[in-house]
Amino acid sequence: MKKVLVLLLLSFQAGSTAFAADAGPYLADRHVARGMKCADCHTPDNKLKTSGDLDICASCHGDYQAMIKKTDGRYEVNPHGQHEGALPCSECHKGHKPGVNYCGGCHNFVYKVP
Q1: 2, 48, 80, 88: which could form a disulfide with 68 (CB 3.0–4.6 Å)?
Q2: Separation of alpha carbons 20 and 17, rounded Å
Q3: pLDDT tens-digit readout, 25-41
Q4: Side-chain-facing half-sphere of 114: CA atoms under 13 Å
């Protein structure tokens, strides 16, 4: 019975992931829609992979300095070039949940965080 429940749950997750790729509002959905697989970012136990001391995000998007350059001039204040230093990407970008405006915890900066 336990195996049946696990298979049912996995089938549901696979189906909901496929649906989410078409209609989901989250960052992970955007990645799946571009052909990425869960294993590209996650370990088999579903943790976010790291590349050395960097988030796995840096392997495609570049390190923190690259993101500062990439987002320079797009916002009133660059969210990647902030005074807290190089935060983990997942501090703001949640993947399977709405993104969080980390800076908005103390400041009145308004960012739409993917």
Answers
A1: 80
A2: 5
A3: 899 999 999 999 999 99
A4: 5
Q: Which two tokens stand for residue 78?
A: 């660059």
Tokens representing 57?
């995000």
Whole-angstrom Cα Rg for the chain: 17
> 92: Cβ–Cβ under 8 A, 6 or more apart, which residues?
79, 99, 100, 101, 102, 113
Residue 109's alpha-carbon distances to 60, 86, 102, 104, 106, in angstroms, are 27, 18, 10, 6, 9
- What is the torsion angle, in degrees rounded to the nearest 10, for the CA atoms of residue 55, residue 57, residue 59 and residue 63? -70
Residue 34 burial class via C-beta count within 10 angstroms: exposed 0-12, middle 13-18, buried 19 and up: exposed
pLDDT digits (tens, 9 = 90+) for 59-114: 999 998 999 999 999 988 999 998 988 888 989 999 999 999 999 999 998 888 98
